Automatic annotation (TrEMBL):
Keywords: Cell membrane, Membrane, Transmembrane, Transmembrane helix, Transport. The lineage of its organism: unclassified sequences, metagenomes, ecological metagenomes. Its main location: membrane. GO terms for cellular component: plasma membrane. It is found in: Cell membrane. One of its GO terms (molecular function) is ABC-type transporter activity. This is ABC transmembrane type-2 domain-containing protein. The chain crosses the membrane at residues 20-39, 194-216, 237-262, 274-296, 308-330, 350-378.
Amino acid sequence: MPAILIALKDLRLRLRDKSAVTLGLIAPLGLAIIFSLIIPDVSAGEFTMELGVVGIEQSDLGGVFESEVIDDLDRSLFAVTEFDTEGNAQKAVDRLDVFAVIVFPPDIDAAVAAGGGEIQVITTNEAPISGEIALSIARQFAGDVSGVQLSVATALFAGGTDVEALATRTVATPLRLEVVDLETGDRQLDISTFFAAGMAVFFLFFTVQFGVSGLIQERTDGTLPRLLAAPIHPASIIAGKGLAAFALGVTSMAVLIIATSWQIGARWGNPVGVGMLVVAGVASAIGIMAVIATLARTAEQASNIQSVVAVVLGLLGGSFFPVSQGPAILSKLSLATPHAWFLRGLGDLAGGAGPAAAVPSTIALLGFAVATGVVAALRMRSMVRL
């Protein structure tokens, strides 16, 4: 009972100064919304690449490109604009009316027949990803044309005589080797969910620090000796601070899950599995922040160190960007943070998986909680002795 009263007292103080509300709710929700708005989700059809083409009507090769490539593009992802001259296309790229332009020179048919030729791609530094996509499309087409040329040349060398018939037969021959998408995308977080979860777990460490730093604040304010003089077991004081931190953490996470699901369409996954990850994640955050708090002499010092550690762990754990896009060593180092395990657990729940999918990540998070919690409890015992 004393532990609950202490926790309620700390919660009232934190809610009164609005700091817990700001860091636990307003900041993460605001950043999640901003990130989800400025970074499009291709899988959800939120990204459309404005692609331009020049010269496809003036050459046979351009006509093949139109029928075999342009007509097969997913129109939910690509918007294609045809320009009459390269100059007009360049102006459109400069104005960002289109993000890249694929140009077929007027003499490309003769150049290819003579064994040369080139497809030009106009790009801009303002849209590097779109430029790479356009280059990839052009290179793939050029590779296909080179493959036809090689096949015809080989057939001619073997005794063939009808070049046009050989080329037609080569183009019509079905592929013997295909690349198959194994549909692993369903087990990864979409953009909205990733940033909602990333910001939630990042600011979770700032939220729980209000509770675990309360013991140092009590000592600084001179109220700790009064608590110890009262008929209250020292363990109840420690438990009260921990309960306050746990309540703040779970409440902020729960509100963020509901708010981001409603505001930006975040898909967190199975409620039971998410609940497991949230509880384990809050416990691990409390343990880490508590250990840091016991190393400081003042509440201000503890807050400063905790903030630095929270930022480092958040960056390393992939709260702001998927660590899989970085060097391999970064992916391995990220597993030393609760953030990475929390996000991994949510990824395992993506696509409709049940609670069992979140068990490995939950166990890892609880491992952080137990290891750091034991250390923090032992150090706090010495702090609450008269």
